């Protein structure tokens, strides 16, 4: 059975085509303020037809007709467990929200915490502040290499933006400011992680767009004191979980 899992995020829309538990293809596009079009583009890219089942998740999950529609927390849990069966909790940093999820011994969601009220602690926070610093977020690791973090006191994106501009005006190194921003986010995510009653020595799966950043992963490991695992397809975790959920229906 061919299944497409479609994850409609606020910043990016992701889709995977699976057949017999094997990922055949995947696609990602910018949502660009039009989630319905982004979802249609993904379906066209993945060759959606009447023989293919469709499961949707994410903010725009109800915008297209689907065989099943599931919340992102459940899909992230299922997708992370598929990519790494050994993990017991998840940290996901998305474009507009961040989530921490704890799994039980059966891989089901036991606890979760979701921040979707403020952009601080999200990929959007990094993207905005990197733009102010004149750097592309795709060059994040190279940019902060050998930098020394400057403490960012503001936990609100708007105030942090003002603080970053003030720091650049004082002549602080842009690289040091950027690394300070990453530390600020990890400090906030650590607080979220503590709310799901973490266990010692557990393996944590790191998903979302920032999971591809080596610097971000290392800083987050320092803050949480836990080993983080990720995967080249970690940004597709929700879409993979959605595709996997159809077999449970």
Top CATH class of the largest domain: Alpha Beta
Sheet with most strands: strand arrangement = 3-2-1-4-5
Counting structural domains, the number is 2
Structural class: alpha/beta
Rg estimate, integer Å: 18 Å
Number of strands: 10
**Secondary structure tally, helices:** 8
Helical percent range?
Answer: 25-40%
In percent terms, what proportion of residues is strand? 15-25%
Query: Within the CATH hierarchy, at the fold level, what is the topology of the largest domain?
Result: Nucleotidyltransferase, domain 5
Low-confidence stretches at least 5 residues in length (pLDDT < 50)?
none
What characterizes the major β-sheet?
A: 5 strands, mixed
User: Could you name the CATH homologous superfamily of the largest domain?
Assistant: ATPase, nucleotide binding domain
3D structure, described in words:
Helices cover 37% and strands 23% of the residues. The chain has 249 residues and is of the alpha/beta class. The protein folds into 2 domains: 1-84 and 233-248, ATPase, nucleotide binding domain (Nucleotidyltransferase, domain 5); 88-230, ATPase, nucleotide binding domain (Nucleotidyltransferase, domain 5, 2-Layer Sandwich), CATH 3.30.420.40. The longest helix has 21 residues, at 174-194.
């Amino acid at each position: 059975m061919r299944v497409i899992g479609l994850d409609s995020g606020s910043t990016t829309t992701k889709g995977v085509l699976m057949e017999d538990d094997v990922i055949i293809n995947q696609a990602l596009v910018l949502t660009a303020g039009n989630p319905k079009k982004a979802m249609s583009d993904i379906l066209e890219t993945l060759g959606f037809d009447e023989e293919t089942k469709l499961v949707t998740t994410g903010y725009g999950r109800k915008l297209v007709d689907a065989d099943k529609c599931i919340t992102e927390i459940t899909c992230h849990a299922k997708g992370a467990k598929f990519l790494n069966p050994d993990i017991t909790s998840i940290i996901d940093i998305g474009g507009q929200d961040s989530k921490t999820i704890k799994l039980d011994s059966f891989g089901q969601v036991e606890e979760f915490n979701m921040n979707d009220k403020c952009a601080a602690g999200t990929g959007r926070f990094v993207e905005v502040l990197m733009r102010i610093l004149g750097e592309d977020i795709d060059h994040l690791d190279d940019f902060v290499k050998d930098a020394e973090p400057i403490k960012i006191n503001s936990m609100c994106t708007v105030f942090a933006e003002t603080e970053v501009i003030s720091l650049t005006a004082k002549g602080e190194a842009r690289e040091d400011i950027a690394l300070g921003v990453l530390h600020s986010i990890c400090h906030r995510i650590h607080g979220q992680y503590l709310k799901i009653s973490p266990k010692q020595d557990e393996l944590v799966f790191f998903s979302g767009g920032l999971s591809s950043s080596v610097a971000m992963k290392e800083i987050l490991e320092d803050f949480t004191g836990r080993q983080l695992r990720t995967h080249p397809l970690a940004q597709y975790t929700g879409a993979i979980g959605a595709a996997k959920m159809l077999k449970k229906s």
